[in-house]
Write a structure and sequence with these properties.
With 265 residues, the chain is an alpha/beta fold. The protein contains nine helices and eight strands. The chain is globular. The protein starts with 8 loop residues before the first helix and ends with a helix.
Length: 265
């Protein structure tokens, strides 16, 4: 979840779930070309600073394990993405949100998640920081139709090109949008979650993503945005492509995947 106004979160989820379940699914077919599976980074990674809250001494070993998991996962992402994260907080409150991300910060719940879900949430929250700190505007010119909270987003903000595929503004889907234009139901919450869910699916389920693009030209556009604008042409050797092209999960971070394939990409 993006670090923004959280009071509307539950209402947005309910509304998004309803829209996701009821929208039209009549879509044209498109295809994607061959994969590149070697991931090169352009600069040295800067490891984020770690801290904890709601922590007890009995959780020290667990905290060490989680920090190592995070470091290994971040090593599989581009350095320029990892370098948007300055601080990672591990929260050991069992009732905390699974994850929050943005403003160069990630907060992850350190309990009640298995390793795959934990890494999935980490990748999702990293995506919010990539959206916030990597795809930035070149200079302040004309404002776009999009705002992040009370802050306007400029037309030169590279993320706006992604948002415009399915969104009129931060609250309004295009009237032509279909649930098949999104990798998940949660991606229909707002353009920021659309970006983060799409990023997560690209990283952890790349072959599955390529199979789904045949169901939607807008989803194909999102795949190409991730490939060429976010990952500089690199693809991940994740997923097996065996998915139902007319179905979408609600949350990509809860999908099963081969963790080793991601960590060795």
């Amino acid at each position: 979840m993006r670090l923004k106004a959280l009071t509307l979160f539950l209402a947005i989820q309910v509304l998004s779930f309803f829209v996701w379940k009821t929208m039209s699914t009549d879509i044209q077919v498109m295809a994607e070309g061959p994969a590149q599976t070697t991931h090169a980074v352009s600069e040295e990674k800067i490891q984020p600073e770690f801290s904890v809250r709601h922590f007890s001494d009995s959780q020290e070993n667990l905290n060490d394990v989680l920090q190592e998991r995070i470091k290994k996962a971040l090593n599989s992402l581009p350095a320029e993405h990892v370098n948007t994260i300055e601080d990672i907080v591990l929260d050991y409150d069992t009732n905390a949100y699974r994850g929050l991300g943005g403003n160069n910060l990630i907060i992850l719940r350190g309990v009640r998640m298995d390793e795959k879900e934990f890494i999935g949430v980490l990748v999702h929250e990293t995506a919010h920081n990539v959206d916030y700190g990597f795809l930035v505007h070149k200079k302040e010119e004309e404002t776009s139709n999009f705002k992040d909270g009370s802050y306007p987003l400029y037309i030169t903000d590279l993320s706006v090109d992604f948002y415009r595929i399915s969104w009129e503004d931060e609250n309004t889907l295009k009237n032509t949008a279909s649930n098949l234009d999104f990798v998940s139901g949660y991606a229909m919450s707002d353009p920021f979650e659309d970006f983060a869910e799409t990023y997560t699916y690209y990283v952890l389920h790349n072959e599955d993503f390529k199979a789904l693009v045949s169901s939607s030209p807008n989803l194909y556009a999102k795949y190409r945005f991730m490939k060429y604008r976010v990952f500089d042409g690199v693809e991940f050797n994740t997923g097996d492509g065996e998915v139902s092209i007319h179905n979408r999960p609600w949350d990509t971070t809860l999908l099963n995947y081969e963790l080793k394939a991601f960590l060795t990409s």
